[in-house]
Design a protein that fits this description.
With 189 residues, this protein is an alpha+beta fold. Helix content is 51%, strand content 20%. The chain has 2 domains: 7-130, Beta Polymerase, domain 2; 134-182, no CATH class.
Length: 189
Amino acid sequence: MKEIATPEQLLTETAKILEKRRIRYFITGGIAVTVWGKPRFTADIDIVIAIPSEKTALLLVEELKKIDSSIYVEPEAAIKAIAREGEFNLIHPNTGLKIDFWILKNNAFDKNRIKRAQAKKLKGQKIYFTSPEDLILIKLLWYKESGSSKHLEDAQSVLKFSKVNFAYLKKWAKKQLTFTILKKFHEFQ
């Protein structure tokens, strides 16, 4: 067991485990904004996982605990997350980070997001990130649900710094009823 001291180490070690267990995943949230937009502070790592069974979840939890002796993650929380398509957490006191593992939902948007995830290298490890378009779309949904302007700022940042497929963005924003929000900060022809 090695000592994990940085967020990058925690992320790369987690990605190795997901790959070893053949669990499809992608990084979203603030870390993905840092990749596709303007870097910003975030105290957590959001990972969407396609986990097929409770048994796989329990094996994942056991592997995650082996990353570092200080890691805390509850097996029961992982099982409950699968049942409700929710989330469970890993807490790593040494870095002050929390990983939120979000269960991939059984809907067209999430199925599409995982297919469109894009690999990037971090410290020699291939890590999958949500596409910039899907990051914008999920940020619009989160804004619609929470009203938090942070989500709009993140979406604007990704639009400003990344090349995006506007036809795809427009199509899904209309499906999600977030197109009027998107139009507030980007004009469409």
